[in-house]
Amino acid sequence: YTLYQKYMISCDESFKTLFHKNSDKLKEIYNAVDNIKIPVLSFSNNRKLRNKNVWLLGKMQEDEIEHIIDFGVKTGISNLAIIGENTEYSRTLIFTAKNILFNKGIGLDIIVFEDNILNDRVKLRDKIKKLSGWKKEHKNKLTLPKPRYDGILFTGSNEFILKLAPLLSYYDLNSERVTYIGNSKFKSSELVNELSLQGTFFSSSKEPKTDKFTNEWRENWGLNPSYFSMLAYDLALFAKKLSLENQFKGIFRKLLKK
Fold first, then answer.
1. Could you please report the per-residue DSSP string of 80-113?
2. What pTM did the predictor assign?
3. What is the pLDDT of residue 170?
4. Nearest to residue 184, comparing CAs of 200, 169, 173, 196?
5. Backbone angles phi, psi at 237, to 5 degrees
6. Residues 6 or more apart whose Cβ sits within 8 Å of residue 234
7. What is the rounded CA–CA span in Å between residue 194 and residue 189?
8. d(CA 169, CA 152)
9. pLDDT digits (tens, 9 = 90+) for 49-85
10. Beta strands in 24-137 (DSSP E)
11. Beta-bridge partners for 112
12. Residue in 143, 194, 202 with CA at minimum distance from that of residue 169
Protein backbone atom coordinates (compact mmCIF):
# COMPACT_ATOMS: atom_id res chain seq x y z
CA TYR A 1 0.00 0.00 0.00
CA THR A 2 1.02 3.60 -0.57
CA LEU A 3 1.18 5.99 2.36
CA TYR A 4 -2.13 7.55 1.28
CA GLN A 5 -3.82 4.13 1.03
CA LYS A 6 -2.65 3.28 4.53
CA TYR A 7 -3.97 6.64 5.72
CA MET A 8 -7.39 6.00 4.12
CA ILE A 9 -7.59 2.53 5.70
CA SER A 10 -6.73 4.12 9.06
CA CYS A 11 -9.48 6.70 8.55
CA ASP A 12 -12.00 3.98 7.74
CA GLU A 13 -11.16 2.17 10.98
CA SER A 14 -11.56 5.45 12.89
CA PHE A 15 -14.97 6.00 11.31
CA LYS A 16 -16.02 2.48 12.28
CA THR A 17 -15.02 3.14 15.88
CA LEU A 18 -17.03 6.38 15.93
CA PHE A 19 -19.92 4.75 14.13
CA HIS A 20 -20.26 1.84 16.53
CA LYS A 21 -19.01 2.97 19.93
CA ASN A 22 -19.65 6.64 20.55
CA SER A 23 -23.45 6.82 20.84
CA ASP A 24 -23.29 8.27 24.37
CA LYS A 25 -21.02 11.11 23.22
CA LEU A 26 -23.30 11.77 20.27
CA LYS A 27 -26.28 12.00 22.61
CA GLU A 28 -24.48 14.71 24.59
CA ILE A 29 -23.77 16.63 21.38
CA TYR A 30 -27.35 16.23 20.17
CA ASN A 31 -28.77 17.50 23.45
CA ALA A 32 -26.61 20.62 23.24
CA VAL A 33 -27.27 21.18 19.55
CA ASP A 34 -31.00 20.75 19.94
CA ASN A 35 -31.12 23.81 22.17
CA ILE A 36 -29.54 26.05 19.54
CA LYS A 37 -31.40 24.50 16.59
CA ILE A 38 -28.38 23.55 14.49
CA PRO A 39 -28.82 20.61 12.06
CA VAL A 40 -26.55 17.64 12.82
CA LEU A 41 -25.46 15.19 10.10
CA SER A 42 -24.48 11.88 11.64
CA PHE A 43 -23.04 8.59 10.40
CA SER A 44 -25.06 6.82 13.10
CA ASN A 45 -27.87 4.34 12.46
CA ASN A 46 -29.10 4.46 16.08
CA ARG A 47 -32.81 5.32 16.01
CA LYS A 48 -32.64 6.45 19.63
CA LEU A 49 -30.63 9.48 18.51
CA ARG A 50 -33.26 10.80 16.13
CA ASN A 51 -34.84 14.20 16.65
CA LYS A 52 -36.00 17.01 14.39
CA ASN A 53 -32.50 18.46 14.04
CA VAL A 54 -30.63 15.20 13.48
CA TRP A 55 -30.11 13.56 10.10
CA LEU A 56 -29.05 9.90 10.47
CA LEU A 57 -27.19 8.69 7.39
CA GLY A 58 -26.52 5.12 8.52
CA LYS A 59 -28.55 2.12 7.39
CA MET A 60 -31.56 1.55 9.60
CA GLN A 61 -31.31 -2.10 10.59
CA GLU A 62 -34.71 -1.94 12.28
CA ASP A 63 -36.34 -1.00 8.96
CA GLU A 64 -34.73 -4.00 7.30
CA ILE A 65 -36.05 -6.30 10.03
CA GLU A 66 -39.54 -4.85 9.62
CA HIS A 67 -39.47 -5.48 5.86
CA ILE A 68 -38.21 -9.06 6.08
CA ILE A 69 -40.74 -9.97 8.78
CA ASP A 70 -43.52 -8.54 6.62
CA PHE A 71 -42.24 -10.73 3.77
CA GLY A 72 -42.09 -13.78 6.04
CA VAL A 73 -45.65 -13.30 7.29
CA LYS A 74 -46.98 -12.86 3.75
CA THR A 75 -45.22 -16.04 2.58
CA GLY A 76 -46.87 -18.09 5.31
CA ILE A 77 -44.48 -18.30 8.27
CA SER A 78 -46.66 -19.13 11.26
CA ASN A 79 -44.16 -20.37 13.85
CA LEU A 80 -41.00 -18.28 14.04
CA ALA A 81 -37.80 -18.66 16.03
CA ILE A 82 -35.73 -15.52 16.52
CA ILE A 83 -32.14 -16.46 17.32
CA GLY A 84 -29.50 -14.04 18.50
CA GLU A 85 -26.60 -13.43 20.83
CA ASN A 86 -26.10 -11.33 23.94
CA THR A 87 -24.95 -8.13 22.21
CA GLU A 88 -26.53 -4.69 21.95
CA TYR A 89 -26.91 -5.11 18.19
CA SER A 90 -28.72 -8.43 18.51
CA ARG A 91 -30.89 -7.28 21.43
CA THR A 92 -32.01 -4.23 19.42
CA LEU A 93 -33.09 -6.34 16.46
CA ILE A 94 -34.83 -8.88 18.71
CA PHE A 95 -36.72 -6.07 20.47
CA THR A 96 -37.74 -4.60 17.10
CA ALA A 97 -38.90 -7.97 15.76
CA LYS A 98 -40.85 -8.75 18.93
CA ASN A 99 -42.73 -5.44 18.73
CA ILE A 100 -43.53 -5.92 15.04
CA LEU A 101 -44.89 -9.43 15.63
CA PHE A 102 -47.02 -8.43 18.63
CA ASN A 103 -50.68 -9.31 17.97
CA LYS A 104 -49.93 -10.87 14.55
CA GLY A 105 -51.03 -14.29 15.72
CA ILE A 106 -47.70 -15.96 14.97
CA GLY A 107 -46.06 -18.49 17.25
CA LEU A 108 -42.82 -16.95 18.48
CA ASP A 109 -39.79 -18.18 20.42
CA ILE A 110 -36.77 -16.03 21.20
CA ILE A 111 -33.53 -17.93 21.72
CA VAL A 112 -30.45 -16.04 22.88
CA PHE A 113 -27.08 -17.79 22.85
CA GLU A 114 -24.79 -16.61 25.66
CA ASP A 115 -21.01 -16.43 25.15
CA ASN A 116 -20.35 -19.43 27.39
CA ILE A 117 -22.56 -21.51 25.07
CA LEU A 118 -21.10 -20.14 21.84
CA ASN A 119 -17.56 -20.81 23.01
CA ASP A 120 -18.23 -24.42 24.03
CA ARG A 121 -18.88 -26.74 21.08
CA VAL A 122 -20.56 -29.44 23.19
CA LYS A 123 -22.91 -26.98 24.93
CA LEU A 124 -23.69 -25.32 21.60
CA ARG A 125 -24.63 -28.64 20.01
CA ASP A 126 -26.82 -29.53 22.99
CA LYS A 127 -28.68 -26.23 22.83
CA ILE A 128 -29.31 -26.56 19.10
CA LYS A 129 -30.54 -30.14 19.57
CA LYS A 130 -33.00 -28.84 22.14
CA LEU A 131 -33.99 -25.98 19.85
CA SER A 132 -34.69 -28.29 16.90
CA GLY A 133 -36.19 -31.19 18.86
CA TRP A 134 -33.63 -33.47 17.20
CA LYS A 135 -33.48 -37.09 18.29
CA LYS A 136 -30.91 -39.70 17.34
CA GLU A 137 -33.52 -42.18 16.11
CA HIS A 138 -34.63 -39.67 13.45
CA LYS A 139 -31.37 -40.26 11.56
CA ASN A 140 -32.56 -43.64 10.29
CA LYS A 141 -36.01 -42.49 9.18
CA LEU A 142 -36.78 -41.78 5.53
CA THR A 143 -39.32 -39.11 6.51
CA LEU A 144 -38.44 -36.63 9.22
CA PRO A 145 -41.06 -35.25 11.63
CA LYS A 146 -42.44 -31.81 10.87
CA PRO A 147 -39.93 -29.15 12.03
CA ARG A 148 -40.68 -27.29 15.24
CA TYR A 149 -40.45 -23.96 13.37
CA ASP A 150 -41.24 -22.97 9.81
CA GLY A 151 -39.13 -19.81 9.98
CA ILE A 152 -35.89 -18.65 11.61
CA LEU A 153 -34.87 -15.00 11.90
CA PHE A 154 -31.13 -14.43 12.40
CA THR A 155 -30.23 -11.31 14.41
CA GLY A 156 -26.56 -11.83 15.25
CA SER A 157 -23.17 -11.02 13.77
CA ASN A 158 -21.66 -12.79 10.77
CA GLU A 159 -19.47 -14.86 13.08
CA PHE A 160 -22.51 -15.89 15.11
CA ILE A 161 -24.52 -16.88 12.03
CA LEU A 162 -21.63 -18.87 10.54
CA LYS A 163 -21.20 -20.72 13.81
CA LEU A 164 -24.88 -21.73 14.07
CA ALA A 165 -25.96 -22.34 10.48
CA PRO A 166 -24.05 -25.59 9.83
CA LEU A 167 -25.27 -27.04 13.14
CA LEU A 168 -28.87 -26.02 12.48
CA SER A 169 -28.59 -27.72 9.12
CA TYR A 170 -27.15 -30.90 10.62
CA TYR A 171 -29.82 -31.06 13.31
CA ASP A 172 -32.78 -30.96 10.91
CA LEU A 173 -33.46 -27.22 10.77
CA ASN A 174 -31.82 -26.57 7.39
CA SER A 175 -32.94 -23.93 4.90
CA GLU A 176 -34.79 -26.52 2.79
CA ARG A 177 -37.13 -27.39 5.67
CA VAL A 178 -37.30 -23.98 7.34
CA THR A 179 -37.44 -20.48 5.84
CA TYR A 180 -34.31 -18.55 6.84
CA ILE A 181 -34.70 -14.76 6.96
CA GLY A 182 -32.38 -11.92 7.95
CA ASN A 183 -31.20 -8.42 7.15
CA SER A 184 -28.52 -6.98 4.85
CA LYS A 185 -25.73 -8.82 6.69
CA PHE A 186 -26.54 -11.68 4.32
CA LYS A 187 -25.12 -9.64 1.46
CA SER A 188 -21.58 -10.26 2.75
CA SER A 189 -19.51 -12.68 0.69
CA GLU A 190 -18.79 -14.97 3.65
CA LEU A 191 -22.51 -15.56 4.24
CA VAL A 192 -23.34 -15.78 0.54
CA ASN A 193 -20.70 -18.50 0.14
CA GLU A 194 -21.83 -20.54 3.16
CA LEU A 195 -23.59 -23.65 1.80
CA SER A 196 -25.81 -24.11 4.86
CA LEU A 197 -27.30 -20.64 4.26
CA GLN A 198 -28.26 -21.18 0.62
CA GLY A 199 -31.86 -20.11 0.02
CA THR A 200 -31.93 -17.48 2.79
CA PHE A 201 -34.22 -14.50 2.20
CA PHE A 202 -33.01 -11.10 3.38
CA SER A 203 -33.98 -7.46 3.13
CA SER A 204 -31.66 -4.58 2.42
CA SER A 205 -31.83 -0.82 2.20
CA LYS A 206 -32.06 0.48 -1.35
CA GLU A 207 -28.53 0.96 -2.63
CA PRO A 208 -27.66 3.94 -4.84
CA LYS A 209 -25.73 3.36 -8.05
CA THR A 210 -22.07 3.84 -7.17
CA ASP A 211 -20.23 2.58 -10.27
CA LYS A 212 -19.14 6.03 -11.46
CA PHE A 213 -17.96 7.09 -8.00
CA THR A 214 -16.12 3.78 -7.48
CA ASN A 215 -14.32 4.04 -10.85
CA GLU A 216 -13.23 7.63 -10.26
CA TRP A 217 -12.06 6.80 -6.73
CA ARG A 218 -10.07 3.81 -7.99
CA GLU A 219 -8.45 5.91 -10.74
CA ASN A 220 -7.38 8.58 -8.23
CA TRP A 221 -6.34 6.51 -5.21
CA GLY A 222 -5.66 3.00 -6.53
CA LEU A 223 -8.09 1.12 -4.28
CA ASN A 224 -11.82 0.55 -3.97
CA PRO A 225 -13.75 2.97 -1.74
CA SER A 226 -15.20 1.58 1.48
CA TYR A 227 -18.79 2.10 2.54
CA PHE A 228 -17.59 4.84 4.90
CA SER A 229 -15.74 6.64 2.09
CA MET A 230 -18.94 6.78 0.03
CA LEU A 231 -20.94 7.88 3.07
CA ALA A 232 -18.45 10.68 3.81
CA TYR A 233 -18.67 11.88 0.19
CA ASP A 234 -22.46 12.10 0.40
CA LEU A 235 -22.21 13.80 3.78
CA ALA A 236 -19.85 16.47 2.37
CA LEU A 237 -22.19 17.19 -0.55
CA PHE A 238 -25.16 17.31 1.81
CA ALA A 239 -23.36 19.78 4.08
CA LYS A 240 -22.37 21.88 1.08
CA LYS A 241 -25.97 22.01 -0.10
CA LEU A 242 -27.19 23.08 3.35
CA SER A 243 -24.52 25.76 3.46
CA LEU A 244 -25.53 27.15 0.06
CA GLU A 245 -29.20 27.13 1.04
CA ASN A 246 -28.43 29.05 4.23
CA GLN A 247 -26.37 31.58 2.27
CA PHE A 248 -29.24 32.03 -0.19
CA LYS A 249 -31.72 32.54 2.65
CA GLY A 250 -29.41 35.17 4.17
CA ILE A 251 -29.17 37.06 0.90
CA PHE A 252 -32.94 36.83 0.40
CA ARG A 253 -33.59 38.25 3.87
CA LYS A 254 -31.28 41.19 3.16
CA LEU A 255 -33.14 41.91 -0.11
CA LEU A 256 -36.48 41.85 1.71
CA LYS A 257 -35.20 44.36 4.28
CA LYS A 258 -34.22 46.74 1.50
1. EEEEEESSHHHHHHHHHHHHHHTTS--EEEEEEE
2. 0.65
3. 92
4. 200
5. -65, -40
6. 57
7. 9
8. 12
9. 656 666 666 566 778 888 899 999 999 999 999 999 9
10. 40-42, 54-56, 79-85, 107-113
11. 84
12. 194
